[in-house]
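Support request from a user on the community tier.

User writes: "When I paste my structure tokens into the form, the page sometimes reloads and wipes my input. The last time it worked, I copied everything first. Here is what I submitted, just in case something in the input itself triggers the reload:"
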């Protein structure tokens, strides 16, 4: 009986972890979720910052608000992404789950260079911690 309970709990926890996917699997956030459209305009000197939300069971009923230097950019649902084009410089990319989902503000620093592309993913870790993390895909 204890073994069955442990297997059930383990299976439940595995189902709650984030599933990171490639940028090709994430869909661009719809216009109604974009809060600062000026940052989505590419210029000749800008770099690109891809911020995507993992597909997961945990937190799937809540949006995650994305901030650049404390300014709201977009609200992302699971398996959505936003691509911003900041000018070169240092930035703080942060996120906060909206509504009643658990987790506090999480942030990463980013140095953007002309023509560079940085990628970050938003998700929940195995232990339920919410965060934003540098990513290679």
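"...and here is what came back when it finally went through:"
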């Amino acid at each position: 009986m204890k073994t069955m309970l442990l297997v059930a709990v383990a299976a439940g926890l595995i189902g709650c972890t984030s599933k990171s996917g490639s940028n090709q699997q994430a869909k661009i956030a719809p216009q109604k979720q974009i809060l600062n459209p000026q940052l989505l305009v590419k210029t000749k000197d800008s770099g690109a910052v891809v911020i995507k939300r993992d597909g997961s069971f945990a937190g799937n009923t809540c949006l995650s608000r994305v901030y650049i230097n404390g300014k709201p950019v977009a609200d992302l649902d699971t398996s959505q992404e936003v691509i911003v084009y900041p000018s070169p410089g240092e930035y703080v990319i942060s996120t906060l789950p909206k509504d009643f989902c658990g987790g506090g503000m999480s942030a990463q620093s980013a140095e953007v260079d002309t023509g560079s592309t940085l990628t970050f993913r938003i998700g929940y870790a195995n232990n339920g911690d919410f965060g934003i993390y540098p990513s290679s895909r």
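Agent notes: The reload is a front-end session timeout and is unrelated to the input. Residues 1-23 have pLDDT under 50 and may be disordered. The CA atoms of residues 73 and 136 lie 22 Å apart. Escalated to web team.
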